[in-house]
Amino acid sequence: MLLKVLIALVFLAMLASLAAGAGFLLRDGAGSRRLLVSLKVRVALTATLLCLLFYGFYAGGLGG
Fold first, then answer.
1. In whole angstroms, what is the distance from residue 50 CA to residue 47 CA?
2. Sign of the CA dihedral running 22, 24, 21, 32
3. How far is CA 17 from the centre of its chain?
4. Which residues contact 62 (CB under 8 A, 6 or more apart)?
5. Contact in structure between 45 and 31 (CB atoms under 8 Å)
6. Quick one: which H or E segment has residue 16?
7. What is the pTM of this model?
8. Where is the chain membrane-spanning (predicted)?
9. What is the pLDDT of residues 3-28, one digit of tens each?
């Protein structure tokens, strides 16, 4: 159960980072430093999500 909650939280954090990045793009333009940081955070969250999913399927917590 904890694994599913962690996956949901990481996914919501990815969506928040995506929204923040879109806001930075609209306000600051394409050359913004904040936009780059938002992209780095989103990539790190994606890697974390993939690791959690692989672990969940490997451990049997998500599979059938």
1. 5
2. positive
3. 7
4. 3, 4, 53, 56
5. no
6. helix 2-28
7. 0.86
8. 37-58
9. 999 999 999 999 999 999 999 999 98
Question: 29 — alpha (psi -120 to 50), left (phi > 0) or beta?
Answer: left
Q: What is the pLDDT of residue 64?
A: 64
Q: Which residue type is seen at 18?
A: L
DSSP 32-57: -HHHHHHHHHHHHHHHHHHHHHHHHH
Are 54 and 9 in contact by the 8 Å Cβ rule? The answer is no
Q: What is the pLDDT of residues 43-59, one digit of tens each?
A: 999 999 999 999 999 99
